[in-house]
Design goal:
This protein is mainly α. It contains 10 helices and 2 strands.
Amino acid sequence: MKKHIPNTVTCLNLFSGCVGIVFAFNGDLKSAGYAIFIAAIFDFLDGMLARLLKAYSEIGKQLDSLADVISFGLLPAIIIYQLFLEAPQLADVSPYLNYSAFLIAIFSALRLAKFNIDERQTENFIGLPTPANAMLIASLPFIVAGDNTFLADFIHNPYFLLIFSLGMSLLLVAEIPLFSLKFKSLGIKENLFRYILVAASLALIIIAQFAAIPVIIFGYIILSVIQARV
């Protein structure tokens, strides 16, 4: 029974993604965003439980990727798709441009398949992890619903959404080394960039709330590149 506990949590991740898809297609993008954040918590917990219980299994590894492609691939792609539909300029550009949102789902699947067979990613990541990309996208409906009309109009621009979909898709499979947030010790030297990211993230979230998430994700990428060079 012990080995099935992490898999049960992984299934909760998948369930959150499925419910989020329903919210997204019903136009409730904020609830869909919350579903991504909840799925991310379950995604963190299943790995932690697998390590604590020493309940590693090949089916658990594959199940985790299958759940992630729904919660962190398809669901965020649908959120972008719905943001396209909300864009007032879309009809003047192309009625088919909104389908570019599903590049997020395709490249998320590629990212997860690559991760499963890439032995370089046992400790750190190569390319942006799908949960990080999904949480960035989950923050967009909250930013749109905020008081800043400039940001809302910017996000609702179909050209921005197209470039964003292309850019994030490429980051998912890019050969960019990114550190993981798994602390093997509490030492400052080996965890300096992790501590910087955690401290800056907490400060930014307190100041800017959901609008801080895109800054945090791109800050994570920049810090990872600096760490790799250092």
